Amino acid sequence: QLQVVESGGGSVQAGGSLRLSCAASGYTTSTDCMAWVRQAPGKGREVVTIIDRAGVTYYSDSVTGRFTISPESAKRTLYLQRNSPKPEDTAIYFCAAARGWPKPWTMSYTYNYWGQGTQVTVSS
């Protein structure tokens, strides 16, 4: 069983930067992809980015060019670097993992493992 724990959330002003971390433990070889998913107040979950074991990445249109997903395999940690955050990026950010390639990768129900989430608030 895989466990993931997010950290690094908090408050940031628009235009600043923030890096979220996701520490994985347990049976990490059971998953093939990891992703960051967010849920804004009153909205559904949005998958913003995904990475597979080969390093292939995809981003949602809402974060392309501003967010970067990157793994640090030695530490079993996944990062989300958020540059130029906007108030609309305010959300709970979750780390998620999937067995195989989730189809479609943009839908949160295709992921098998979830962290508890970390709150990020962006002020204008």
Question: Which key features would you list for this structure?
Answer:
54% strand; seven-stranded mixed beta sheet; 124 residues; mainly beta
Word description of this protein:
With 124 residues, this protein is mainly β. It is built from no helices and 11 strands. The strands form 2 sheets. Strands 2, 4, 5, 6, 9, 10 and 11 form a 7-stranded mixed sheet that branches. A 4-stranded antiparallel sheet has the order 1-3-8-7, with no helix packed on it. 29% of the residues are buried.
Q: In brief, what are we looking at here?
A:
By secondary structure, the protein is mostly beta strands. Helices cover 0% and strands 54% of the residues. The termini are far apart.
SSE pattern: EEEEEEEEEEE
| Helix count from the secondary structure assignment | 0
Q: Tell the overall outline.
A: globular
Helix content: under 10%
Gyration radius, rounded: 13 Å
Quantity of strands, as a count: 11
Q: Proportion of β residues?
A: over 45%
N-end to C-end Cα span? 40 Å
Arithmetic mean pLDDT: 93
| Biggest β-sheet strands, sense, barrel | 7 strands, mixed
Residue windows where pLDDT falls under 50 for at least 5 positions: none
Structural class: mainly beta
Secondary structure elements and their pairing?
Layout lengths: L1 E6 L2 E4 L3 E10 L6 E7 L5 E8 L4 E3 L7 E6 L4 E7 L7 E8 L14 E2 L3 E6 L1
